[in-house]
Amino acid sequence: MHNPTTLADRRRFRLHNLKISLPTKALAFGLAMLPLHAINASKASNQYAQVISSNTLTVVAVKSPTTVFNDGQYFHGFGYDLMRNYAQSLNVQLNFQIVDSNATALKWVAKGKANLALTNADMQSIDQKSLMSFSASCGDATVLQKNGLDTQLNLVFKDAKDHLTQTASSFICQSKSNGAIQHLASFYNHHVVNEGSWDTIERDLQQRMPIYRASFERAAEQYNLNWHMLAAMGYQESYLKPNSVSPTGVRGLMMLTSDTAKAMGIENRTDPEQSIQGGAKYYDSLLSRYEYIPNPDRHWYALIAYNMGPGAVTFIQKQLEKQGEDPNNWLNMYAYLQRHQASNARYLQALQYVTRIRAYLEHIQNQQLINI
């Protein structure tokens, strides 16, 4: 397609990218036949060459439920993970910057301060700055909509002819084709907790969080953890009820088994202070076990292990390796659990466990419950 110069041309460019078909659009996907980082940077235009030479992809975005959350230590979110995976495909580091408005994000791209923006800015605003955009889901709004994500999320670039724009569109549509976007959207599903349950959850947190906040904070400080995450785990485990007992014998606010409690030096599992300390220590040990996995994925692996046991995680990793898949990639682990959840109730439980904790974590942050 020629370099779009008019408003109509730019809109046609966007529609062209939204409707790309893998078998027929050789221009957009020819680049995908090779490793993205193998493209000759000397022939690339400014943005791509800059990314490769600096070994850094700079992405700017506005914080939102679809783009990114900050848990106090690490970023996570649909948009953030999508860009992290794209940067990995280029074999460069991701520099993810959060700004206060779409206007600022677009300005950063227009001035070359960022290589691309992840935004839901309206088309008129994008056109006014002579920028180019295409769908963050390769035009598949349904996969975002059914998971409660923003269907208007777009990637915005400075130049349609830049290799960075071309490799990004190729990567996004490859991710759609191979199911990665589906799994990513499913993990960040904002319907994982029934909408009618949030009033009860909010009431529980308002009533019980003040009682245990100090204990969560002390344990988090001791093990260099985020206390919001520990609180989200505690709510998923027991609704912050220290006398909880499961049919399998786990008990206490953090629902420790007798063996785990003993290993963590906990004498009384129903004592909330001890339970939180034991849960934090065990979670920290699991994070150390998966230290070879980058954050935030390391946290999701540790949560699955907290729920199912490290042995179950090791088993799945071995199965993924046998299938020729990266056993340390969270999307592969998540996809495996999804594929086998119908035949293995533990996998279904693990999926619900990790996605609900993620949802509770984000809710605690958004509602500023830390100020209770």
From TrEMBL:
Pfam families according to UniProt: SLT (PF01464)
A cellular-component GO term for this protein: membrane
Biological processes annotated in GO: peptidoglycan metabolic process
Alphabetical list of PROSITE patterns matching this protein: TRANSGLYCOSYLASE
SUPFAM superfamilies according to UniProt: Lysozyme-like (SSF53955), Periplasmic binding protein-like II (SSF53850)
Family in the record: Belongs to the transglycosylase Slt family.
Signal peptide: none
The protein, known as: Transglycosylase SLT domain-containing protein
GO molecular function, one term: peptidoglycan lytic transglycosylase activity
Organism domain of life: Bacteria
UniProt-listed InterPro entries: Lysozyme-like_dom_sf, Transglyc_AS, Transglycosylase_SLT_dom_1
CDD domains for the chain: MLTF-like (cd13403)
Residue span(s) of domain Transglycosylase SLT: 216-324
